[in-house]
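Re: [ENG-882] Designed sequences occasionally contain unexpected residues at chain ends

Forwarding the minimal case from QA. Structure tokens:
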């Protein structure tokens, strides 16, 4: 009888053990980056950076990007459905694109720093909101001319 009680205690303790097989959490959404920095850009020059949003959990999770997510003029969010929840199965992903357009500068031209952010609303209980910050600088370049000599070799 004593051996049976000890065996039950050992088995019971094993049942309460934490996740030892390194399985991912049930609910988890991952984004390739939460800080998007476009660096410096000339006026009217367009740069785009894709963001991959992946369900890295074990069950279906949803992601919603609200209407009008970016309020600053030089930034745009492309390839998304405003305010519509998207259900992602495990390992399924969507790609949205953040666009930055360099702005015209005042005279005399000085670099103009821009920043904004938007949120992803998720069904993940531990992380229902993921904030993505976006930055970029409009700057006037100094065009350079390079002389090239063509001659016989």
């Amino acid at each position: 009888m004593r051996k049976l009680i000890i065996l039950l205690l050992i088995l019971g303790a094993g049942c309460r053990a934490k996740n030892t097989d390194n399985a991912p959490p049930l609910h988890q959404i991952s984004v390739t980056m939460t800080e998007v920095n476009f660096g410096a850009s000339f006026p009217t020059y367009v740069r785009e950076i894709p963001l991959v949003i992946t369900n890295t959990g074990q069950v279906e999770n949803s992601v919603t990007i609200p209407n009008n997510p970016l309020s600053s003029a030089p930034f745009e969010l492309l390839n998304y459905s405003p305010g519509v929840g998207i259900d992602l199965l495990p390992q399924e992903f969507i790609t949205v694109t953040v666009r930055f357009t360099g702005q015209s500068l005042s005279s005399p031209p000085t670099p103009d720093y821009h920043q904004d952010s938007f949120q992803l609303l998720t069904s993940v209980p531990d992380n229902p909101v993921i904030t993505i910050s976006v930055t970029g600088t409009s700057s006037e370049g100094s065009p350079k001319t390079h002389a090239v000599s063509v001659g016989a070799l």
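QA comment: On inspection the terminal residues look reasonable. The CA atoms of residues 73 and 101 lie 8 Å apart. Proposing we downgrade this to a documentation issue.
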